[in-house]
Amino acid sequence: MTGPKIYRETQRRLKDLGFTFSVPIEVTHYIGGEFVQGTDPFPVIYPATGEVIGMAPEGREKEVEMAVGAAKEAFRNWGRMTPSQRRSYLRRFGEKIREYKSVFEILESLDVGRPIYENRLGYVERMAHNIEFFADFVVTHGSEAYPMENGYINYVLRYPVGVAALITPWNMPSMLATWKIGPALAFGNTVVLKPAELTPLGAWLLARCAHEAGLPPGVFNVIHGFGPGSAGELLTRHPDVGLVSFTGETSTGKVIMRNASDTLKRLSMELGGKSPNLIFESADLDWAVEVTLRASFFNQGEVCLAGSRLLVQRSVYEAFLEKLVQAVKALKVGDPLDPETRLGALISEDHWRKVMSYVEIARDTATILTGGKRPELPHPFDKGYFLEPTVVVDVKPSDKVCQEEIFGPVVAVLPFDTEEEAIELANNTPYGLNAIIQTRDVGQAIRVSEALEVGTVWVNDWFVRDLRAPFGGAKQSGIGREGGHYGYDFYYETKNVCIANR
Ligand code: NDP
Predict the structure, then answer these.
(1) How confident is the model over 23-34, as pLDDT tens digits?
(2) Whose CA is nearest to atom 30 of ligand 1?
(3) Sign of the CA dihedral running 291, 292, 295, 299
(4) What pLDDT is stored for residue 6 in this prediction?
(5) Whole-number percent of the chain with pLDDT over 90
(6) Ligand 1: centre distance to CA 282 (Å)
(7) Which of 46, 96, 237, 374 counts the most CB atoms within 10 A of its CB?
C-alpha cells in the first residue's frame, strides 16, 4: 500500500464502522466542549511507512489559557457533584469508548505502529474500565474516623483539588490517558490532557467520546502540542493548574518538577524503567519463554515495564536461550494492520536511531544472538521504522545496554549462579519500576519479591493489573502511587475535622 492507498484503505475500514474523517486526518483540540481547529499544524506520521497521515495543531499560550479557563469554570459544578452524579457521566464515557472499539484499535496502530493484534487483546476494554472502575470506586468507598479518648472525634474529608493537567507519552497513548482521566474526573477534578505530539489520534477520539457521552463543557479538554516551550510546559507552569500527573522519561519528569515548583503543584511521576526478568532454574521454561516474549517485545519493547534485562540462572541458561531465540525468530515483524503481525514499527525515525545506537554498542562490545537489523519488508514498509527483535548476550552489568532504558525490542541477557547474585544484579540500576520473577519455588518468590527495590513484582507473569492495587515506581522510576485508594493523596485534598463532644 502506498500513501494515498493507506488513507483510502483506512478510510474504508473506518467508514465500515460508521466513522468518517477527512484525509489526511485533521486533528483538533477539544476545549470547553468544542472542537477547536488551532494553528501551527504539525504532521502526524505513520511509523510503519513514514508517511504523513494527519495534521495536528500546536497548542500555545492562547489554547492553554482557554483550556485551563474552561476547566476551572467547569470545576465549579463538577467538583460539587455527588460521586453518583459523576458516575453516570463517566459510565456513558466508558460506553462510548467501547462503542468506538474497532476505531480505537485502528487509530492506535496508526498512531504508534503497534500490531493491531495487540490492540485486540482487551486494550480498549481496559481503557473503558479505567474510567468506569474509578467512577464506581468513589461511590463505594468512604473515609476514616478517629475517636479520641477525651471524647473528641476526628473524621477525614476528601475533596477534589481543581484543574488536573495530564501529560502522557506516546507508547500506549490511549490506555495511559484513560488511566489518568478515570481517577482525575471520578475524584471530582476537571482535566486538560496533553498527549505526546507523536500520537495525537487516540486523544482526539477520546475527546469525541467525551463529547458524545455528554460530559459538561470544560470538564475534559485536550490540547495537542509539544513539551518544552509549548503546551506541555505551559500547563506545568500555569497557576490555575493544581496537579500534574505525568508519565514519561525520567529526565522529563525532573524538568517538570522544577517547572511546577514555582506554583507548588501536586505531582505524580510515572517514569522510566530498566526492569529485570529473573529466570530461576525451577521455572517452567516453556511458560517462561512465553512470558519473556511478551515482557521484552510487546509494543516493540516500547513499554516502561518491559523486562529489558533478562537474568537467567546458569544451570538453565543454555536451554532457556535456545528456546527463547527460536521463539523470537518466529515473531512476524511488519504491517501493523495485518492481524498476523507480532512486532510493529518503532515510533519515529529519531527513536529508531536512538535504539540502533544501543544495538551498535552491543555489536562492538557484546554478542547479538538474533536480530539487530532492519528487517527486509515490501514497499511501503521498507520506509518504516522497523527493527528485528534483538537478543544481546556477553554483556557486563555495568554496560550501557544493561543500565540505560533503550525503549525498543532489545533485551540484554546476564547469567547468575545464586539467588543473592540475582537480587544484586536486579537492583543494580537507578530504576525501580517493576520486576518479573519466574520460579516454581514459592519460598524463593517470597524472598526475592521482598528484596527487590521496585514498585511492582510479577511472579510467573507480566503486566497483569488490578486497578485496586498501587502502581508506581521506586528510585528514579517515579514518585507516588496511583490505583484504588492509593491515588487519594494525589487527586484529592484531605481535611481533618475534629469535633468536640459538647
Ligand atoms: P517524554 O518524557 O519525552 O514525554 C512524555 C510527555 O511529556 C509528552 O507528552 C511530552 O510532549 C511531554 N513533555 C516533554 N517535555 C515536557 C516539558 N518540559 N514539560 C511538559 N511536558 C513535557 O516521554 P516519551 O513520550 O518519550 O515516553 C517514553 C517514556 O515514558 C519512557 O521513558 C517510558 O519508560 C516512560 N513511561 C513510563 C511509564 C510508567 O508508568 N512509569 C509508562 C509508560 C511510559 P512531546 O512528546 O510532545 O514532547
Answers:
(1) 688 999 999 999
(2) 248
(3) negative
(4) 64
(5) 94
(6) 38
(7) 46
Q: Would you state the pLDDT for residue 2?
A: 46
CA 52/CA 44 separation, integer angstroms: 6
Catalytic residue among 108, 132, 270, 302: 270
Q: Which of 499, 20, 306, 451 is nearest to 7 (CA)?
A: 20
Task: List domains and CATH numbers for the chain.
Answer: 61-271+477-495 (3.40.605.10), 276-466 (3.40.309.10)
Query: Buried (b) or exposed (e) across 185-197, using 16+ Cβ within 10 A?
Result: bbbbbbbbbbbbb
Reported as type and span, the H/E element at residue 385 is: none
Q: Determine the average pLDDT of the residues in 447-473.
A: 98
Asked whether 431 lines ligand 1 (CB < 6 A), one says no
CB distance 168 to ligand 1 below 6 Å:
yes
Beta strands 25-26 and 241-247, pairing class: unpaired
Query: Is the confidence at residue 369, as pLDDT, over 80?
Result: yes
The single residue of 118, 132, 304, 402 carrying the catalytic annotation is: 304
Copy the grid coordinates of residue 272.
522510566
Burial call 93-132: b when 16+ CB within 10 Å, e when fewer: bbebbebbbbbbbbbbbbbbbbbbbbbeeebbebbbbbbb
**Distance between CA 107 and CA 79 in Å, rounded?**
32
Q: Is the CB of 196 under 6 A from ligand 1?
A: yes
Q: Does residue 47's CB lie within 6 angstroms of at least one atom of ligand 1? A: no
Whether 189 contacts 164, CB under 8 Å: yes
- Statement: the pTM of the whole predicted model exceeds 0.85: yes
Residue matched to cell numbers 501529560: 167
Q: Using CA atoms, how far apart are residues 195 and 181, in angstroms rounded to an integer?
A: 12
Contacts (Cβ under 8 Å, ≥6 apart) of 355: 346, 387, 406, 407, 408, 409, 410
pLDDT interval class at 15 (50, 70, 90): confident
Residue 324 to residue 486: CA distance in whole angstroms: 37
Q: Please state, rounded to an integer, the average pLDDT across all residues of the chain.
A: 96
Q: Which of 227, 216, 141 is nearest to 487 (CA)?
A: 141
Is residue 433 in contact with ligand 1, taking CB distance under 6 Å?
yes
C-alpha grid cell, residue 159: 475533596
Active site residue 420: no
Number of other residues whose CB lies within 10 A of the CB of residue 88:
12
- How do 478-479 and 266-270 pair as beta strands? antiparallel
> If pLDDT is split at 50, 70 and 90, which confidence band does 20 have?
low
Tell me how far apart the alpha carbons of residues 268 and 257 are, in angstroms, rounded to a whole number.
Answer: 10
Average the pLDDT over each of 38-42, 79-83, 133-137 and give the range with the smallest value: 38-42
Helix axes 123-140 and 101-112, enclosed angle (nearest 10): 120
